[in-house]
């Protein structure tokens, strides 16, 4: 398979861009880049719990938006950027501790929009959340 990345991408580049952002604050980590996917994870701890001791659903959405947005940005041509249009999430299983790992894959990479699906699993590999994000592709003004 040919890689979808049109801009130089590496774990170091992604980690550098995450400094001093919500990504770093929540403990989100980028862990793998494949030819057509990205993997990241978020800890399930005091930073990410809701009041009942489960991973906050909004944190799952933050992980999904992080991975989908990064995927869209790095798979777009030079001179293009992306902004989110819509995101949804189906929360399937609660998580009390450990990590939730998300894998983002493109459903559609078009000239004006991209759609990414992010499947999230717990440490046992059980599905916890499925999310889909639609990104608008914008040409940078010169």
From TrEMBL:
GO MF assignments: 1,4-dihydroxy-2-naphthoyl-CoA thioesterase activity
Q: Which domain of life is it from?
A: Bacteria
Q: Which InterPro entries match?
A: HotDog_dom_sf, PAAI_dom, Thioestr_dom
- Its GO CC terms? cytosol
- What UniProt keywords apply to this chain's record, in alphabetical order? Hydrolase
Q: Where is the Thioesterase domain?
A: 52-129
- What is the similarity comment for this entry? Belongs to the thioesterase PaaI family.
Q: Does the keyword Ubl conjugation apply?
A: no
- Give the protein name, as stated in the record: Hotdog fold thioesterase
Q: Does the keyword Hydrolase apply?
A: yes
